[in-house]
Amino acid sequence: MSMTREAPEFEAVTHFEGSEATIVLSGSVENAAAFALSATLDAAIDRHPTSMVLDLAKLEFMGAAGLVAIANAESRLAASDVVLRVQSPSSLVKRLLAIMEQAETARRERSLPEHAHLGPEQQVEATWSSQRFSSSLGTKDLRRVTAMPADPDVIDGALRLVVELAQSSIAGADGVSVSLMRNGVLSTVAASDQTIMAMDVDQYTTGEGPCVDASFKGHWFHAESLDTEVRWPMFTPRARTLGIKAILSSPLRALEEPVGALNIYSREAESFEVKDQELAALFAEKASLILSDARAGVSDTQMALRFQGALRSREVVSLARGVIMEREGVNAEAAFNTLLRQSLSQGVPLGEHASSVVRSAFRPELASGDGQR
Amino acid sequence: MKEASLDVLGMYCQEAGLSHGELWLRYFELGGMSAGFELEGILCGVLAPSAYDHDIIALAINERLVELGVQPAIPYLLEP
To answer: What ipTM score was computed for the predicted complex, to two decimals?
Structure first.
């Protein structure tokens, strides 16, 4: 018995085997598709399943609304002691679930001691925070990982979600944006509003500002108060005109290369506490994983250089293995094992240990004059 | 036992913040011979690695954990 609901590019198919429900999702869950997903989940829950599995293997992307739909279903099921199991999300969806969980944890931690202070800027949060997003979406079930998403639209969607979650979970954030380098040009791929977009653009046009510096230098920049800030003389007055008082930019990296920044803006000076800075860094780290998976912003040259480096290191390891094979009369596998044990006992990385093994093998007294290395 | 170790590789790869592409490069540097899609299969738990391959992957992830200041956690299968 099955039931199908369709939205553009999105499909949810429910199978019941006795009282055990499996729902297979495919395509992309955003906006309208999220309603279809909610309806499918509700219809299945109304049949009182004893177990429910959500198979995400064919799902390409899930936006905030989709994640909320799942969280809702999960709490409805939990009320009747049924655990919702999420199976086989793609690497991207898995990252998004992790970010979602992190945002939820941050909000929960924050709302406990500070509940009374959560003022009128809570409208975005209300949608989320009433829902429990429990640990059943843990790593245990999230095992199979599918191919990397490379579609820039999908990546942009993921980054918009990061912006949304960062804004709703970082205490001092009045606006958030993500700048990303594509084809050598830095531009904003996601911003919470027009003022924030203008802030980013001002930094690109003046060629200075925390966002530009974080994107190029690869470490974070924090302007605690723009009233006293001196590092960016052209940009700072423009930011003050738009009412921005503090900025925190954390670098985004793809395969360890800086490719952009997660920018958090506040209308109050000194509004980012250490905890907010740590949270911003965590969000930037998660966004970097998404970018690394997609190899965003990494040029062919950078990839080629990284690969060349890898080839060189591999050659040293092979040479060292050969040295051990010769010395101990063992096969390649045993030689690797010897290198491994030696590097562990010396507390140095295997590559480093391999270099010294290769160096130790060179005995100039035996070389007939033309020996090198 | 085999199941558990399959689970461990994929899980720690994620904990170490390594994309599968980056892990493959590190594995390749250490002398690994499997192709990217084979490594993917191993991390997904659909391919069982040899003890030798397992240990190279484990080392690549453990070395990354050390870089991050975390105690390396994956045990090796080859007898010392």
So the answer is: 0.92
